[in-house]
Amino acid sequence: MATNNISPGKAEIPLYVLNDFRHLHRREGDTSDFGYNNLEAGKRIPGFEVYSSEGLRPAVGPLKSDFYRISITLSGSVDVQLGLEKFKHRPGTLSFTFPGQVFSKDNITADTFGYYILFNADFLEELIPAGKIPLEFPFFDYSGVPFIQLQELEIAAVADFVGKIDAELRQHKQGREKAVRMYLYLLLLEVKRSYVAQELHITTTDTRSTYLVPRFMKLVSQHFLTKKRVADYAALLGVTPNHLNRTVKEVTGHTASAAIADMLVQEAKAVLRHTDVAISEISWQLNFSDPAGFNRFFREQTGQTPLAYRKNA
């Protein structure tokens, strides 16, 4: 298992780097040949990879990576979770993950087909400074909406850009790396146009549940290790804890406290699955007062002890 900047004995989810990530999302012995899959070494472009769903593992994550991800579904359906936000991919759905975000994918139906693109922050440096990507493309930011449903012509245009990228990868034409960057940028621009037209951006002037609950979910995904009380998030959102609890319950069917607990469970599961760090160390990293408290919390949420989950993961 490869990780990036993980200190020995520190209970953090491994932050996987792009050049050592394949074993987590591709089946062993996969012979498909789209994009980077089984692409000869001399044709690979550093900081960028693209695949079709053929050969994808039946489930991926929960995990964290230090690169951006675009998932594109053309047929079938897939369940995707980004932080606390859960989405059902169907034909024409795209979702976006940014570095450091907890991500998982499962329930991939047999008729599912699509593509996914992975790229480092500096891959588009010639076109966009690495730190400006979330500003240029808001679906890559905590404050944005990380999934979008495209119309038939729009998804066809996105798929066409993916096809052009694949064609560039398979030949040694002059300027191929720049062409791949340009096609990726144009793909993102195509999506942004639809994103803006659909008015998917969240406006902070809207205090109704349409804004409040998604913003709460994003804040929990961002701050759950340091802020564990509903009152903490109510203060950030400028509402009372009772109003926040009531609104979250009305929209999701679960309390705001349950959402915070769910995010902690996701983090704990990923640490248990992807590291061999002691349970006691994990409890401290997740800011529990003692290991017994962490064990009790995990069992209440999952029905099994942390050790049992690790053995079965």
From TrEMBL:
<dbReference type="InterPro" id="IPR037923">
    <property type="entry name" value="HTH-like"/>
</dbReference>
<keyword id="KW-0238">DNA-binding</keyword>
<dbReference type="InterPro" id="IPR009057">
    <property type="entry name" value="Homeodomain-like_sf"/>
</dbReference>
<keyword id="KW-0805">Transcription regulation</keyword>
<feature type="domain" description="HTH araC/xylS-type">
    <location>
        <begin position="214"/>
        <end position="312"/>
    </location>
</feature>
<protein>
    <submittedName>
        <fullName>Helix-turn-helix domain-containing protein</fullName>
    </submittedName>
</protein>
<dbReference type="Pfam" id="PF12833">
    <property type="entry name" value="HTH_18"/>
</dbReference>
<dbReference type="InterPro" id="IPR018060">
    <property type="entry name" value="HTH_AraC"/>
</dbReference>
<keyword id="KW-0804">Transcription</keyword>
